[in-house]
Amino acid sequence: MNAFKKDPKKYLQAPPKMPKEFRMLMLGPRGMGIHTQAAALQDVFGWKIVDYPSLVKKKLESILKEEHHEPNNVVVGSSKIGLS
Q: What domain count does the chain have?
């Protein structure tokens, strides 16, 4: 194990092969290098990076920009508002 750690290329015949279509979820707090590691995997294996938090943020922003209407069947009671 120590000899491999010192010079792994000596023991590897070819670079590792991974499927072109491979899904992996990488989670961690900010500053842990998740994007850096994902970029390295993209460089080595050609995988596409999908930044899930960014996708959710963009979708939420687009939803909030849409025009909203009050429902036409609102029932106002003594202290409660409900839908009929």
A: 1
